[in-house]
Amino acid sequence: MQPTVIAPSILSADFARLGEEVDNVLAAGADWVHFDVMDNHYVPNLTIGPMVCQALRRHGVTAPIDVHLMVEPVDRIIPDFAAAGATDISFHPEASRHVHRTIQLIKAEGCRAGLVLNPATALDVLDYVLEDLDLVLLMSVNPGFGGQSFIDSTLRKIERVRERIDASGKAIRLEVDGGVKPDNIARIAEAGADTFVAGSAIFGHADYRQVVEEMRAAVAS
Ligand code: DX5
Ligand code: ZN
């Protein structure tokens, strides 16, 4: 199991004050910045691209930027995100014609590579690529929007992915994204996750430090 990471999703931040929001959430104890990229094609929403990632780096953000690509096709945008300062890049297998090639492309660009599984995606996609991955990102909502409710069947899925990661003997992170809150994060951690994305639960809270500490304490208990 990897050390716990709390990764606030900036999808729920105030985009008019993004640099300040990211500074504040990192000062409050968050570990990574989760950066949701939506293309109005793979998912029915449109967000931000490499220019915004680069702007955060120029603003002085040094924390890992965990780019979650909900973009189809995906390969062409990967070098742009690597150049813009992404440290981790995850993609959905449905959005790539050649999943193994996309993983290798992310690594060749110097980033850690992640594969994202939607709530209904079977674990088979991991069969021949798990050992090439740095992280598995399990969606616990359908991708496209913040503020949705956690889908409980994800808990069983987390357990099964945890077994596979442990059996591989590799240092692969198990990240969970969607509806993660202080009141369910302990169950998600018990199931085997070590990396937690939370958007509305953190940015919707008046005190970022309090909610980040509450989440970290719940994981540790
Ligand atoms: C959904 C995104 C998530 C989302 C999480 O497609 O990938 O990262 O912003 O938001 P909450 O924590 O509000 O479910
Ligand atoms: Zn995400």
TrEMBL record:
A divalent metal cation binds at H34, D36, H68, D177. PROSITE patterns: RIBUL_P_3_EPIMER_1, RIBUL_P_3_EPIMER_2. SUPFAM superfamilies: Ribulose-phoshate binding barrel. Keywords: Carbohydrate metabolism, Isomerase, Metal-binding. InterPro entries: Aldolase_TIM, Ribul_P_3_epim, Ribul_P_3_epim-like, RibuloseP-bd_barrel. Catalyzes the reversible epimerization of D-ribulose 5-phosphate to D-xylulose 5-phosphate. This is Ribulose-phosphate 3-epimerase. It comes from Luteimonas lutimaris.
